[in-house]
Every structure is written in C-alpha cells, then in structure tokens.
Specification:
By secondary structure, the chain is of the alpha/beta class. The chain has 6 helices and 8 strands; from the N terminus they run βαβαβαββααβαββ. Helices cover about 40% and strands about 25% of the residues.
C-alpha cells in the first residue's frame, strides 16, 4: 500500500530462531517484496539467535536487496540475530526491548578428540570474528564491549543501543491505520 508520499510499504513480523527454516521464510518474504516492486519493508523482529552461518547468510542477503528494510526490535534480539538486525537500513527498538551479544557457542560432543576440539575452537573463533566484523562495520559498539562479549553475555539496553549505533532511535512500533501486518 502506498504511503502519503507514494512509497509502497509492507509490514511484517518475525519472532523465532535464526535457523534455516526461519531464515528461509524471512528471505522469501523479502524477495517477494522486491518482486512486487515495493519500496520498503517494515519488519518487527524478535529472536534469541541461532546458527551463525544462517545469520551471516541473511545479513548478506538483506544487504544485497534493492529495498529499504527497516527493523524494529519489539522484544529481544540476541546472539547472531543482532548481526541480522544491523543489516537494516533503518533500525529502531521499543523502550522495553533488549539486545544481547555473547561468544559463539559450540555444542559439545561425546568422544571428541583433541583434533576435533581444536577444529571446533577454530570454527567458533572464526564465527566470532565474522560476527564482530559485522558489528564493527554497522554500529559503533565500544571495543571493550566487543572484547567482553568474547567471554560472557553482554546485555545492551535501548538507551545504550542508541549510543552504540545499533538503533537510530527508541520508539514503539505502531502499525499505521489502514495497513495490514503479515507474520512470517
């Protein structure tokens, strides 16, 4: 539906994990918006994270689309979902929202040899580096916060999110009258 200045905008919501199923649904919905020649997607978003590879894929996919994707953190955006969130051209969060970043977690497996442990460590460190590079490129999170996330969970309030450049402003998401919302 066109807004007051003639831009075609759609509104969508996503809450769920960053896994192949969820990422596939988000990418498909965004692709459809591009195919429908929309100008903008407003996406309410809440995710506790998931798989780094799926999150990096979605980040790159969103950044490559010829459409403005506006993210609204309307709950919690954590872990790799923060990297997905910063792909948005515009980013906002509710006053009651929260962000959390932390080190990459690798599941333990029984019977791990020293070589497999080293391989898992190398993979986790590489994923940490990829995620940190995205956060450095798209936000201004202080170095000491990024270092702390290598060792523990770091929670970021809405006020801090503005200071760190994760969001452009703190504001509640309100669906404009006459528009429809589609959950993906």
């Amino acid at each position: 539906m066109p807004d007051r200045v003639g831009r075609k905008i759609t509104y969508m919501g996503y809450t769920g994990p960053i896994d192949s199923n969820g990422v596939g649904r988000i990418a498909a919905a965004l692709n459809q918006a591009v195919n429908d020649r929309l100008d903008e997607v407003q996406l309410t978003f809440s995710s506790l994270g998931g798989y780094v590879a799926d999150g990096i894929y979605l980040y790159n996919h969103i950044r490559g689309l010829p459409i403005n994707v506006v993210f609204h953190n309307t709950g919690s955006v954590s872990s790799i979902a923060v990297a997905v969130f910063v792909a948005g051209g515009e980013r906002y969060c509710s006053p009651h929202a929260m962000f959390m970043i932390h080190p990459t977690v690798m599941p333990s497996q029984e019977g791990m040899t020293s070589e497999r442990l080293q391989s898992s460590l190398n993979a986790a460190l590489a994923d940490d580096a990829r995620t940190e590079n995205i956060l450095r490129e798209r936000a201004a999170i202080p170095g000491e916060i990024l270092v702390a996330r290598r060792f523990k969970d770091v929670y970021i309030t809405p006020k801090e999110a503005v200071i760190y450049g994760l969001v452009h402003a703190v504001k509640d998401f309100i669906l404009p009258e006459g528009y429809q919302m589609r959950q993906i």
